[in-house]
Amino acid sequence: MTFHKEGYTSLALTILFLLVLNAVIQFYLPQAHTLKWIIYIFSFLFLAVIVQFFRSPFFDISTDETTVLCPADGKVVVIEEVDETEYLKDRRIQLSVFMSPVNVHVNRNPITGVVSYFKYHKGKYLVAWHPKSSTENERTTVVVQNSDGVSVLFRQIAGALARRIVWYVKEGDIVEQGQQFGFIKFGSRVDVFLPLGSKILVNIGDVVKGGRTVLAELPSALTAVTATEETAAIKPVSMESLTASAPIIEQVAEEEPTVIENEAHQGELPLVIDYPKTEEPKKAVKKAAPKKSAAAKVPQPKGKKE
Known about the structure:
The structure is a single chain. This protein has 306 residues and is an alpha+beta fold. The protein has helices spanning 8-28, 33-53, 133-136, 221-233, 239-254; strands at residues 2-3, 55-56, 67-69, 74-84, 90-99, 106-108, 113-121, 139-145, 151-158, 165-167, 174-175, 180-184, 188-195, 199-200, 207-208, 214-217, 258-260, 271-273. The protein is built from 5 helices and 18 strands. An 8-stranded antiparallel β-sheet has the order 11-7-8-9-13-5-4-15. A hairpin with a 5-residue loop joins strand 4 and strand 5. Helix 1 runs antiparallel to helix 2 (33-53). Residues 244-249, 255-273, 292-298 and 301-306 have low confidence and may be disordered.
């Protein structure tokens, strides 16, 4: 466990403030023992909060190109399918992790690859769990593409209390899974946008650890593209198309079905065929030519003998 470099200034200011406060109480109110003990306890607790907030633990990181590591400590608050409109322009599975002030606020790369996109956005400071905080708050957007060509987008989002986002990456950088890419001060949120077809391994409400919890298993590049194309091919049925097809449906419904009854099975239900009758063309019958009658033989008169 170490103290993160982003907290050096905050720690120095905190120590200076507490020293001045205790010195003033000691100099002007030397006999106020109860007040002095209250100030001592407050000073200790305040310093402990600052130290625990900027802590940076050491641990072993297991890397795997087929998995997505959690980018921050916190709790899973969102798992849903959405449209990513900033860079990827396709359907994605959004997974959001809320970081409370007591969590470690180090942010880590979820996958290994090349940073293909990075942008910082100025914005509002809505509470981190607000639905619009992902698109309206101060934030950074990072896209990393792995060796298989699969891209994962993730965002650092400032909350109502967190007013400063720090990042250590830029476009073209080669990053390693689990290594630090940034830091957010005093409560925030991190969103991860995974390709369709990813196998999600966590549930809403789960407590996760940055760099240790596996959020999902990535699909191959071909599977991800296929899943996106299939989703795009599914179009909603409009009321206009239903209205246009109504006369056809009514016309089919008005036609009487053909009923075929089998005399040999009178007790059974008749077979109903749901299509209109069609008359088969009659075959031409060839008429036989009349036979010629044999010519009647005319008896020849016999000649008289002389």
